[in-house]
Structure formats: structure tokens, C-alpha cells
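Trying the structure run again after the queue cleared.
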Amino acid sequence: MNMIQTSISQYSLPDGKSACTCIAIEMSSSLLKYLNNNSDNINIQQFLTADRLQSMILAGSDLYNSLKQSQSDISSEVEHLSPEEVLAFLHSSKPDTSSSSTTT
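Done. C-alpha cells:
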């Protein structure tokens, strides 16, 4: 397998140094979707391209910034978020697609 390089890194972006977990979750999600949709014809070298890596870095940084802006309890000094914090945000930001909601 070849090394994949992009023209940017997470450190090229504002707040990118703190977006590690969000970038990893974006890449993991993208990889799982690819594997699910291509289970009969998996070509990991076709999936892992410089363009895809760069788009995952950008998407992860955007996710981090969205999470940071939406959470008043996350200070601007936060260096890293746990996977649980990111996944909870993603779960809470999904629109409710159920036809009825229940309250407790």
C-alpha cells in the first residue's frame, strides 16, 4: 500500500489541531459506508485517495467547529474531545424522523 498525502493537514486549518477525534469519526463513518455499499467489490486503494483524505480533514474540522459553536460548555481552550462527546453531538443534531415523540 502506498502512502497518501494531501496538500493540507489538520494543522493547516483554524482549530484543526483540536479536531483529531472529529476527523477520525468522519473517516471511520465514510469507510464504514463504503464497505457497506461495496461489500461485493471492495477496493480499499480506490477508496483511500488524497482527495478523500483531504475532504475528511475538512469535514472533521467543520464538525469540530459546529460542535464547538453549539456547545456553550465547551471552552475555546478545549484541545480535544472524546469520541463520546462527538457521537452524542451527532446523535442530538439529527432531525427527529419519528412521527410521534414521547416525553418522560
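Residues 97-104 have pLDDT under 50 and may be disordered. Worth checking whether this holds up in the mutant runs.
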